[in-house]
Amino acid sequence: MYNSLRPTDGHSMAADANFGAGTQALGKSPEQQGNQRIRHLLKCFGLRTSLIRLKVIDALLTAADNQRTLGVRGVHSHLLELGIPLSFLSVREVLKRLCSEGVITLNADKSYSLHEEAAKVLDGRT
User: pTM for the full model?
Assistant: First the structure.
């Protein structure tokens, strides 16, 4: 009997670790899903995606989820804890650029948070 799903290149289906793994093989990890949301956010604001922008926004979102606020030093420290060796000046410049583009806002206490329009984009309300 011919099975159209069976590979015809000489490999057995059992040898392929991803075959039959269910939705986990096709689904994305939570980190990838979060990165896709942040990539979409940056695109909506006309910004190119970069690793530092992804990580900075992710740090701010993580802090907000934990009911904390982060300033430049807090974001820089968070990135260093994750093993991302970026200079303090680089982090500060990215935060300033994200602020000037309206993605994040600088609060009165010198902490940063996601702008409400950016939050709408992340939540899919726009």
Answer: 0.72
Among 2.130.10.10, 3.20.20.70, 3.40.50.300, 1.10.10.10, what is the CATH number of 31-123?
1.10.10.10
- Each residue's pLDDT tens digit, 85-116: 999 999 999 999 999 999 999 999 999 999 99
Q: Return left, alpha or beta for 83; rule: phi > 0 is left, psi -120 to 50 is alpha, else beta.
A: left
pLDDT band at 32 (very low <50, low <70, confident <90, very high): low
Q: Is 107 helix (H, G, I), strand (E, B) or coil?
A: coil
Compute the distance between CA of residue 114 and CA of residue 18 in angstroms, rounded to an integer. Answer: 38
Q: Is 94 exposed, middle or buried (0-12, 13-18, 19+ CB in 10 A)?
A: buried
Domain range list for the chain = 31-123
C-alpha to C-alpha distance for 18 and 24, rounded to whole angstroms = 9
